[in-house]
Amino acid sequence: MDYRVWIKRAGMLALVVTVSACAREGRQVSVDDTTSPQEILALAEAEVQRNKLDRAGDLFLEVERLYPYTVEAEYAIIQAAKSYQGGKKRLESRAAAQRYVDFFPAGQYAALAHYLIALSYYDQIVDVQRDQENTFKALQALRIVVERFPNSEYAALAAPKFTTALNQLAGKEMDVGRYYLKKGQFAAAIGRFDVVVREYGDTPHRPEAYLRLVEAYLSFGLNGQAAQAAGLLAAQYPDNQWTRAASSLLGSGR
Question: What angle do CA 208, 213, 217 make, to 5 degrees?
Answer without folding.
Answer: 155
